[in-house]
Design goal:
alpha/beta, Rossmann fold, nine-stranded mixed sheet, 9 helices, disordered C terminus, globular
């Protein structure tokens, strides 16, 4: 891994070759990065203005309006989602508590189940773009997925999201799935939430089969100097009155020993790649088996696009899930 100059003792690091053409990847990166650079400070400004509203009802209305604008802008991805989940069964059997949706398919395995934790910078709902990605992961792994749409900040600051993911895991266990049959899969901020929930589960003797993280954002400290102003404001909204130095709040500072094997996929040029490195280093130092797959691009969550690099990453993810062999089979 000399090209990336990574010094990660105990981590299985693989530099992934670029399969997508350089021009297409550059255009995809630009298509994601340009709106973020142009509109990012405006979004941060809007979030800051909303947080400063004194009246709770008016503040909730402003956040609701901002989310509705996001959902409307993201509706263009619904057709993409419909293609990705065609032929799969999608249902929402749980009406109260965290919103939990199932994705299942004909011939899917029953000895392993995926608990998916979406990203969204703690404050926005799951995008159809990412539902499409989850559908592709489920199809490639041949495994049923429960998606946990946790409660969002700032109306529900931490630890609400972590509570919801822990509740989702407990629901799976109550339905007959041993914790050792559950693989937590997440992207971006969902990785930090999933890791915090996994640390809680392990502390209670319920070790999952594995953790699979795509472009993880783990360290929620808004004081760190390497994150975008939007990310910084979202982290503040997520934390509320909690301290980012509390290991129970910031999973990067939490207990790594005893965690199940971890797979991390990320672009080496992603501004959040530092979190992938730091997580891999800390987990490996605690005796956890860690695999890091690093691509040479810049995009955050490269798997969002159905191109050769994304398909390779999803295939590698499915192979990792297959290696997380359960201890017993669920009927």
């Amino acid at each position: 891994m000399a090209a990336l100059a990574l010094d990660l003792p105990g981590v299985e690091v693989t530099a992934m070759p670029r399969a997508t053409s350089f021009v297409r990847r550059a255009l995809l990166d630009l298509g994601v990065a340009l709106p973020w650079r142009v509109g990012g400070r405006l979004v941060a400004h809007e979030l800051t203005r909303a947080a400063a509203i004194a009246d709770p009802a008016e503040r909730r209305d402003r956040y609701r309006s901002l989310r509705e604008r996001f959902v409307a802008a993201d509706a263009k991805h619904i057709a993409l989602m419909n293609v990705a989940i065609a032929g799969l069964s999608v249902e929402r059997p749980v009406a109260r508590g965290p919103a939990m949706s199932w994705i299942d398919g004909p011939g899917f395995r029953r000895d392993m189940i995926l608990l998916y934790v979406p990203g969204g910078s703690f404050v926005v709902p799951r995008s159809p773009h990412f539902t499409a990605m989850i559908g592709r992961i489920a199809r490639e792994a041949g495994a049923k997925v429960m998606i946990c749409d946790y409660r969002l900040a700032p109306e529900f600051p931490c630890p609400a999201a972590v509570d919801d993911v822990e509740t989702a895991a407990e629901l799976l266990i109550a339905r007959g799935h041993a914790s050792e049959n559950i693989v937590l899969v997440a992207e971006s901020t969902g990785c930090g939430i999933a890791l915090a929930a996994a640390q809680r589960l392990v502390a209670r003797g319920r070790q999952p089969a594995g953790l699979a993280f795509l472009s993880p954002w783990i360290d929620v400290d808004p004081g760190r100097g390497d994150i975008h102003p939007v990310a910084r404001q979202c982290a503040r909204l997520y934390l509320g009155s909690a301290s980012p130095r509390d290991p129970a709040v910031n999973p990067m500072l939490g207990v790594m020993r005893g965690l199940p094997r971890i797979a991390i996929h990320a672009n080496a040029g992603d501004p959040m790649f530092a979190d992938a490195e730091a997580l891999a280093r800390r987990a490996a130092a605690a005796g956890v088996s860690v695999e890091l797959r690093a691509w040479p691009g810049r995009m955050h969550v490269l798997e969002r696009h159905d191109d050769p690099d994304a398909r390779r990453s999803v295939a590698e993810l499915a192979a990792f899930i297959d290696r997380c062999q359960p201890y017993r089979t669920v009927a």
